[in-house]
Design goal:
With 228 residues, the chain is an alpha/beta fold. The protein folds into 2 domains: 2-176, Aldolase class I (TIM Barrel); 178-228, no CATH class. The chain contains 7 helices and 12 strands.
Length: 228
């Protein structure tokens, strides 16, 4: 996970900023080495200006890591997005329910390979949010924007209102529906909420339920299709 550096000071001069943020300037080699030591084969660009900063994105694209994910609030440079769409494996959109979505949310939903959306709930869904091409999303996750509203009747009402506003075919995960169950035996496959997840009885590599062997529509980077 490559993200923001808390406590770092920035003056707009990238080399100097990186020197203050790390003992060594961040580079493609450094990211690759860190990934190898962690035993992972991918990166996730998770900073607020991911689509504004071609330097950071190009640094990550310069690594040999196989899997690529970008988290964005939906704002950025269209020309950078156009370049990234073919080579990014997964996107996570962070959207507030009561505001107009960022201008690149729609093209990401339309053309991104795999797009999941985390919706910050705080009130009545904005009409512009509902007009997005939700049929292209893989899943949506509802997350309260105010910590004190994380439980109770108010949260449940927000979640119900949002679910009614989204296409019935879209998997929506929230406090009242956070688990994917096996349609065959009912075993808990994956728990998800607010963009987080935990694997239970789902076999990542074979794409099946560990309890009964029934195929699952869920896919991960580890999935290996043995049917072809």
């Amino acid at each position: 996970m490559v993200g923001s550096r808390d406590g770092a000071t920035f003056d707009g001069h990238t080399p100097a900023d990186e020197q203050r943020s790390f003992q060594r300037p961040i580079s493609s080699t450094l990211v690759t080495t860190a990934a190898q030591r962690c035993g992972v084969d991918g990166w996730c660009a998770n900073w607020s200006a991911a689509l504004h900063d071609p330097i950071g994105i190009d640094l990550l694209l310069g690594t040999p890591l196989r899997y690529r994910c970008v988290v964005t609030s939906g704002y950025g440079k269209p020309e950078l997005l156009e370049r990234l769409i073919p080579c990014i494996d997964a996107w996570v959109l962070l959207i507030a329910d009561d505001d107009v979505p960022g201008p690149v949310c729609e093209p990401i939903l339309q053309f991104g390979k795999h797009v999941e959306v985390v919706i910050g709930c705080s009130g009545q869904p904005h009409q512009a949010l509902l007009n997005l091409p939700w049929q292209e999303a893989a899943a949506a996750h509802l997350q309260p924007r105010r910590p004190h509203a994380a439980v109770g009747v108010e949260l449940q009402q927000w979640e119900q209102d949002m679910c009614r506003s989204l296409p019935p075919s879209l998997p929506v995960y929230h406090s009242q529906h956070s688990t994917t169950f096996c349609p065959q035996c009912g075993a808990e496959l994956v728990w998800r909420h607010g963009g987080r997840s935990r694997i239970d009885q789902w076999d990542e590599e074979r794409g099946i339920c560990r309890s009964c062997g029934h195929p699952s529509s869920i896919r991960s980077a580890k999935f290996r299709d043995t049917t072809s």
